Amino acid sequence: MAIIGIDLGTSNTLACVFQDGQAHLIPNPLGGFLTKSAVSLLEDGSILTGAPAKERLITHPDRTAASYKVFMGTQREFVLGGQRFRPEELSALVLRQIKADAERFLGEEVQEAVISVPAYFNDNQRCATKLAAELTGLKVSRLINEPSAAAVYYRWHNPEARDGKLMIVDFGGGTLDVSIVDCFENIIEIVSIAGDNHLGGDDIDRAIAQAFCEQNHLIQTTLTPQEQSELLWQAERAKLSLSPPGAEPTTLTLETSSGVFHLTLDQEHLAQLCAPLFRRVEKVLRQALENHTSDRIQQVVLVGGSAHLWVFQDFLTRLMSVPPIMAADPDRIVAMGAGVCAGIKERREELQDIVMTDVCPFSLGVGTYSHKHDQEPHMAVIIPRSSMLPISHSQRFYTLNDRQEALRFEVYQGEDYFVAGNLKLGELRVRVPRGPAGSQWADVTFTYDINGILHVQVKASGGDYQETVILNPNLHLTDQELAEAMERIRQIQLYREQANAQPLFEEALELFRHVDGFNREALSRALENYGLARDSNDRISLRQAELELEATVNRCQRQLSQIPSLFIQDEPDEEDFWLDEEEEGEDDDV
């Protein structure tokens, strides 16, 4: 049974499988590889995912959600048509479709996956990602950092590349990750990582939208939800049109109840709008370099949808002594790297010589008091950030008060000196014999594995012993809670399970208006059967009804095409062919 690799992105989700010595991207039923990370609740209670859902952000913003990945691991809820969804539930709905696409492509059941996550995702966010997969019945065999996945594929796909240090800059729709990678023959060692979980192409869209409002003296929050969604869509389209070097200026137009407003944007203006965001990019780059002190970087490789943006490439070229290069397929390289890692997990012969190591993205430690008069606990780091995984470290801690009966250890993740600024992961308590302050102790051992799972052992001087795997109670469900959550996801009818179901259904309705006689009766029967099958939740019946509807639509269209036309069709203009056939239906998200 195949293990697939999944890039669960802010803007797009992709899947890949390693077969026949190659990493094969798994197509969705629309024929593309990029499935929009968007979910929309239709009026009949069914769910639409992917590109059709993304389009409904404008027309039905109250029923549609996108860019929810940045809220993974939080208590944030999205309300779609009156129903509440947590980010991991929305992700699960997209993953369910990806799983179905993979099973259709492979012809077998898929139960296991390697899933990529931003390198700077904390424990809560990683746990939420695993939970999203569990809700679809997928076992996560490994979570791999996105730039690490990109590095694996880049190195595997370019075996002739010379050994040395690479910097992978992964600039996506919602996150920025930077990794420094040391490559030596078949060994890929991640030596430093840094990132910003709230910096990506979506922020550029919002900056453009804000500039539009400022120029036109509009207050964005006073626009209707539809107008706000339309403005962000216009901003995204403007950004995409300005992505190539030397792109011509573009104009945004927004029609509101109070008038029609415009903003003309060129690359110079876009660079000015991006300047505050790019300063944050520079901060992340410097942090990655600070964590890495040895040999100079030989190559800077750009991946992620937002790396297409010329003003971003120009900024990095001006900033760095090593000119950046764009990876082939920057939107897809993370998914293909996850696919290669899935192949490694399957022990594929072609990959048996590849060795990859990763690092801990955040420091791990416990809260301690140096003196009994300390006002608040500070962080005693046990595993420093950028430590190579897997790793195990121990540290001894002593009692602070006379006749102290126990030692309580709160476990934290983060870089702040005081624990209040870090993320609490859990706590343990051990008993110690009573005695003078400093006479009793406990050894705390942290073991952090390649999947980012933290094991904590505490052994006290009196013999008391505690051991646990740190689990976030807000994100780790009991067996019963997981079963209930999975059942809820299953009961939500996934309208997009048939790739072209929505377009086909609408096409049949439109065709019904133009046919008569036998054709109208045949279409009526096919539409009725399709509706009954859709309501039954029986996938086999639904697929049969869809095929029947598709055949009826095709037959009616052939007969209509035989009717002589009274019009001479104009020759198409060259500018009508602006969309690359290979990428039809797949915009590059920046």
TrEMBL record:
GO terms for molecular function: ATP binding; ATP-dependent protein folding chaperone. It holds the Pfam family HSP70. Residues 569-590 are annotated as: Disordered. Residues 570-590 have a biased composition (Acidic residues). InterPro entries: ATPase_NBD, Heat_shock_70_CS, HSP70_peptide-bd_sf, Hsp_70_fam. Keywords: ATP-binding, Chaperone, Nucleotide-binding, Phosphoprotein, Stress response. Acts as a chaperone. Belongs to the heat shock protein 70 family. PANTHER family: HEAT SHOCK PROTEIN 70KDA. This is Chaperone protein DnaK.
